[in-house]
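Milestone M4 deliverable, item 7.
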Amino acid sequence: MPIPARLAGLLLRFIALSLPALAAPTEPAPLREHFLAAETALEQGDRGAFRRHLAALGDYPLRPYLLQADLDARLERADAKEIRDFLERWGDTPPGQRLRARWLGHLADEGRWRAFLRDYADGLGTPLACHHRNALLRTGQRQAALEGVEELWLVGHSQPGACDPVFDAWREAGGLTPDLAWERFVLAMASGQTGLARYLTRYLSADDTPWARRWLELHRDPQGIPQVDWRADLHPRAGVVLEDSLRRLARQEPRQALAAWEAAEDDWGLPRQAALELRRYIALRLTLREMADALPHLETLPDHVFDDQLRAWQTRAALSVQDWQAVAEAITRMSPEAREEAPWRYWHARALEQLGDRDSARRLYGQVAQERNFYGFLAADRIQAPYRIGHRPLQVSARRLQAAAEHPALQRALELHALGRIIDARREWYRLQQELQGRDLLAAAQLARDRGWHDRAIFAVARAGHFDDIDLRFPLVHTGLFRDKANAQGIDPAWAMAVARQESAFMADARSHAGALGLMQIMPATGRAMAPHVGLQLGHPFRLLEPEVNVSIGTYYLRRNLDRFGGHPMLSTAAYNAGAGRVDRWLPGDRPLAADIWAELIPYAETRKYVRRVLTYRVLYEVRMGQTPTTLSSLLPPIPPADRLMQSATAHQARWQGEGTGPARTPICDAPGYTERPCL
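Output delivered:
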C-alpha cells in the first residue's frame, strides 16, 4: 500500500495499516502455467495434454472453468451423467450457471423435456423460465405449468418467444382476464411501450377498450388535455388515463398543465391522494422549468402539498434570486430528517448569515464542517476551520481475513483478476458480495485492495457502509501516468485523478451504457476528435481502454474545457459530465452568480452530484498525492455571465499558452495535523 509523502508542516501522514501475511490454502501462481497450458491444449484439440495439465492442477481455484470449457465444447455429444456430475459440484458458480444455461437450451432445442425438468434451476433468465413451464406442459403437468403465469405476464415489455406456448395455453385455460390485460396495458404505457400497448387492446374488455384508445391518443398528444370533457370519476379506468396524461403534459409544458388543472372543477374528480400527488408533480415540473418565476405559485400552495423534494426545489428557486428569507423559510418547513442533511444545513447557515444572524450561522457551519463532503468543506471555509478528513483505516481481524482468503468464490475472483480475466472476475465478485456482509465484506475489500483490485475494494467498503479509510477509497492508481499527462496539459493532476475516481473508480475497461470507455470515460466520438491534439490516431474505439491513450485524451479534454470556461474549475468539471453546450445554457444571464449557488441550481441531478464529488475528491487527491492542497472555496470564483466568460476564456487561454503553467494555488496554513486545510 502506498504511503503518502510528508506534507510541509500541514498534514499528518496517512497511517499505513499493517496487514498480517496470509497464505491461501493452495498458492495459485505456480499452477497458472498448467491452467494456461490446459486451455491451449483444449483449444488445439489435444485432449491428452489437456488431461495431464488438468490432473496437475489439484484444487486450483479455476479448475471449474476448464471443466466447463471442456464440457461446453462437446455439449451435444457429452454424456448427461458427466454434465450432471459437474452441475452437482459446481452448479452454483458462474461457470456452473453458464453450463447449466447452455445445457438446458440444448435440451429445449431437442425437446428433451423430462431431462430439462431434471436439470432445471431457477434464476437463469426469462427464456429458460418459460421453457420450464413449457416442459411441464409437454410432460402432462398442466396445472403446475400454468400456476403463477401472471408473474411472467405482468411486465411492461414484450416477453421472449419461448413464452408464447405458455401464454397460449394460459389464455386457452381462461387465465387471462380483462383485468390482467388492463394491468399489463398500464405497465406497457408506463414503460413507453405503445406498440405493445396497442397489441394488448385485443385482449381488453369492450368497456375498457375506448379508455385505452383515449389514453393512446393523449399519450401521443398530451396537449389535448384541455379538450377532455370527462372526469376521473366517470369510469374506473378514467383516473389513470388522466393522471398519466397530465403528468406527460407537465413534463412538456408545465404552465399548460397548471392551467388545465386549475380550469377543472373538484380536482378532475380524482381521489384525494392522487389529486395531491398530481398537484405536487405539476408544481415540481413548473419549478424545474421556471425556477424563480414559479415562486408565486409555490407560495399559494398549502403545506400539505409539499414533500421534501418540492421544498428542495422551492429552496433552489429562492436561491436563484438570492431571496434569503424565502430560502430560510423553505428549509425550516422541510421534514426534520431533510433539514439535517448537509446541503440544507449549509444553505440554512448561508441564509442566516445573509440575514444578519451570524452567531446562528456560525454554529450551523461548525456542525456541517464536521462532514467530509462538498458542503462540509465549504462550511469550513466560511468559518476558516480545518477540513475534517477523518481517515480511519479498516480494522479487520486476522481470523476474519483468513476466512475470507479461504472463501472459494473470492479465491476464484482474485485469481481471475490476476490473470486479467476481468469480466469473469467481476461475476465471481458479484456472487461473493451477495453472501458476505459487514466485517466479512470489509475483509474481502481489504484483500482486493492488497491485490490491486481497487474498484472492487471501493465498492465493497461503500456497500458495507465504511467510508473513512481514505487510502482505500482514494487509491493512488496510475499516479505517474496522471501526473505526466496532467502536467503536459498544465492542469492539476489531482483534478484528473478525481475525475477518473468518479468516472470509473479506476476500472481501465469500464464501459458505460452510453458507450463511454476507460478510466476517464471517453466517448468514442470525443476520443476521435481529441486524439490528434495529443499526437494519437484512434484507429479503433477500444484503444480508449488503454490507460495511456485514455488519460492523454481525458486530460486534454479537461484542459480544453478549462480554456473554454475561462479557467473556472467548476464549469469545466460540469462540462466534462454534461457537455459544454449545456453548461453554456446554464450560465447566468446578466450578472455574476456565486459558484456554490450555481452548483445547487444545476438542473441535472447527475451533474450536480458529479460536480460536488469531483471537486471534493480533488482536495482529497491533492492530499493523497503529496501536493499543496487548495481550499475548495478558492476553486469556486463567481460564475460570470456568458459575454464576460468569453472575454475571460480568451485571456485565460492566452495566459496559459504564454506561461505554460496551470492555475496558481492558494497558500496554505503552516499548521500540523492530518485534518488541517489551506487558509482563506
